Amino acid sequence: MLSNKKRVFWEALLLTLVVFILGMLLGTAFEGAKMEKVNQYYVKSEISLMDILALNYLAETQESDCKVLVESNLALADKVYEEAYLLEKYEESGKLSENLKLAHQKYDILRTFLWINQMKISDKCKGGIDSVVYLYEFEPDDLVKKATQGVWSKILFDLKQEKGNGVILIPIAINNELASLDALLDKFEISDFPAIIINEKEIITELSSVEDLKNYLG
Amino acid sequence: MEFLTIVFLVYSFIAFYFLFMFLLLYVHNKEHFFDYPKPERQYSLSIVIPCYNEEEHIEQTIQSLLNSEYKRLKKIIVVDDCSTDNSFEIIQKFAKRYPRVMAVQTPKNTGNAAGAKNYGAKFVETELIGFTDADSYPDKDAIDKVVGFFNEPNVGAVTSSIFVKKRDKFIERLQTVEYKVITFTRKFLEFLDAVHVTPGPLAIYRKTAFEDVGRFDEKNLTEDIDITWHLQVKRWKVKMSIPSYVYTVVPDTIKDWIKQRNRWNIGGLQTINKYKKYFFRKSGMLGNFIMPFFVLSWITGLVGISILFYRLSRRFIFEFLSAKYSVGAQAALLTLRDINLTPNVLIFFGIALFAMGLSFTLIALVNARDKKEKRYKQTGVLTLAFYTIFYLLAYPLLLVFSIYKFLKREISW
């Protein structure tokens, strides 16, 4: 009887380990597949950015079409914005590894690059589209901040829906320890977040509605 | 990995382990599940019924024992614990009519069932001594299906399947499911020599074992848990007879239910405190399985409910703030983008555990069916869903309340 009892304890342990290890392996593979998808998107976005940078370089050395520069930057910004949404959903469901969070950091570098490029294009091509840079904290503990950021995201989404190609929207998480981004934040003297920078001129740290935001646009 | 993810994974591991253990025990022992040994001889038996203000039920309890088919049921000792209603008059009426029935009264109210049980035990001179609560009704063949276990000389106590008598109210139907799961689980524990309670509705003890452990502890609110642990310490075996049925009246209001569960919890805490020195010591299954199982289930319950509350309260505050700011900014309260249908591995673990838990409950309901089952309304999906999702969640909540009372020494029946 005693050996029978002991056998059940060991059998249960063995079964639990098998199910658990299988579950963890499947879970890791599942998250890995999502990471792979995000990576593919990222590589494509990176290629697009490189292309735009090359175009910019070309624009500096010879006469080029502002329309092409603006449109290609806008298209990439829109693409990255949609990918950010997908990445956010994946991050929420990523529990076993930190890879998806690293992907977020990579995207933030890309978006910072995109912002720098947008500033360059704005200098070169006056009277183009409005640029809206949304600076927020990634995964804040403070619920007030989290809720505020959620509502600001909705307002900006509504603005983008309404203005379409008239606005380039670049959301960037500020707490990813990126030297280039930190330098930009110093330049604009922003220390309170969330914040919105419109056309590199207006800095908004209090936002009441989408209508309020529209007043700052050109 | 986040701290809460690690906690969830540890939880899942523990839950999987015990569910697998019970399912393996079921697979290995299902042929012997309903077995009960035939008695090698007819053991003499007395049954003690502690009674306090039970005028509504005592008559039927005595009658159900008088109807017992067990030939050597010598005495039915009904102990009135100074009731303030007509209980003692009813008992005396039975004593006058039936020589087997003995009406006794405690000199003063003992304040708990253990006191009345010990008082009644003084009048017992038989080999076996049984106890039945004054609101419980053993079937006529219930005792016959118990006594055979005493063929083994080291068996100190045998317990029965307890079913709910009245199943009209929703709370009674929830307890019907619960009692069946408890009955089913207790039989599994018997296969491990780890029965941890011999409940009041019907438990029969070998008189020598009963005396060996010094009778019931009158300071303990759950004397039936205490005596079983004491029997385990003294290396007496405790058995469970599934085919022996006893029907009991359960609380039919939430207030009474809370009161009863609070008493069970405080009694459990008293027992753990009393036997803590046996934790993982040489005390057989008590220290090596019963106590760790008991304590672990409580700790996991408490930690689980704390995390659940933490998550729910944060979620609630966040949703409230989001709604408030959204209304202020004239933004949509909920958009399609807010809905995340991307599953994660923890959800899969959760679903697997829920499915296994539900299967276990269903197996228990199918196996722990009593003869009178057809008389009652079948357990509905709503009852089962409520039991699985909400009823079980109430256990750790009540435990918090009980621990508070225990620490404040508010210990009363």
Q: What does it look like?
A:
The complex is a heterodimer of chains A (218) and B (413). The model of chain A has no long low-confidence stretch (mean pLDDT 82). Chain A is an alpha+beta fold. Chain A has six helices and four strands; from the N terminus they run αααβαβαββα. In chain A, 69% of the residues lie in helices and 10% in strands. Chain A folds into two domains: 1-127, Up-down Bundle (Methane Monooxygenase Hydroxylase, Chain G, domain 1); 129-218, Glutaredoxin. The longest helix of chain A is centred in the N-terminal third of the chain and has 60 residues, at 2-61. The radius of gyration of chain A is 23 Å and the shape is elongated. Chain A has a four-stranded mixed sheet, with helices on both faces. Chain B is α/β, with parallel strands linked by helices and 413 residues long. Chain B has two domains: 3-26 and 299-407, no CATH class; 44-289, Spore Coat Polysaccharide Biosynthesis Protein SpsA, Chain A, CATH 3.90.550.10. Chain B is 52% helix and 13% strand. An eight-stranded mixed sheet of chain B has the order 3-2-1-4-7-6-8-5, sandwiched between helices. In chain B, helix 6 crosses helix 11 (345-367) and helix 6 (170-191) packs across helix 12 (381-407). The radius of gyration of chain B is 24 Å and the shape is globular. Chain B starts with a helix and ends in a 6-residue tail after the last helix. The mean pLDDT of chain B is 90. Classes of the chains: A alpha+beta (218), B alpha/beta (413). Chains A and B meet through helix 1, helix 2 and helix 4 of A and helix 1, helix 10 and helix 11 of B.
